[in-house]
Amino acid sequence: IYNTNKETKLKTIAHEWKKTPYVLGGTSKKGADCSGFTQSALAQLNIRIPRTTKTQLGSGRKVSKSKLQTGDLVFFKTGRGPNGMHVGIYMSKGKFIHLSTKGGVKEVELN
After folding, report:
1. CB neighbour list of residue 95: distance below 8 Å, 6 or more residues apart
2. Between the CA atoms of 12, 18, 23 and 27, what dihedral angle is there, to the nearest 10 degrees?
3. Of 45, 67, 83, 104, which one has the fewest beta carbons inside 10 Å?
4. pTM of this prediction?
5. Phi/psi of residue 54, nearest 5 degrees
6. Is 86 a catalytic residue?
7. What are the tens digits of pLDDT across the range 29-41?
């Protein structure tokens, strides 16, 4: 039940951020980057995490893909941006939400 409730809240948050433009260094619905979105979204669930993708990566513990739970951060090497990394929030059933560099929060498959 806890994860279902968290997922419902995260879906609502994702919908609220759906039209947010990508702005490097931003942390609000007026403009944000991927880690600004994850920090702000999780803060709405009373979960405090650091600001940048790099510091978010170093703040938790690594879990295997099969052990991911709703609300866990997922990280990707992209080779783009200031640190070549991207971060999103795991939902369930192999999906995660993230703020795309093309703008807007989207729910997509975790491949």
Report:
1. 107, 108, 109, 110
2. -10
3. 67
4. 0.94
5. -60, -45
6. yes
7. 999 999 999 999 9
Structurally, the chain folds into a number of domains equal to 1
Catalytic residue among 13, 32, 34, 91: 34
Catalytic residue list contains 15 = no
Which of 7, 14, 52, 86 is flagged as catalytic? 86
Q: Which domain holds residue 11?
A: 2-109
Q: Which amino acid would we find at residue 97?
A: I
Structure tokens given for 29:
């619905």
Closest CA to 3 of 72, 64, 74, 79: 72
Query: Domain with 25 in it: what CATH number?
Result: 3.90.1720.10
How crowded is residue 68: how many other Cβ atoms within 10 Å of its Cβ? Answer: 17
**Is residue 17 scored above 50 in pLDDT?**
yes
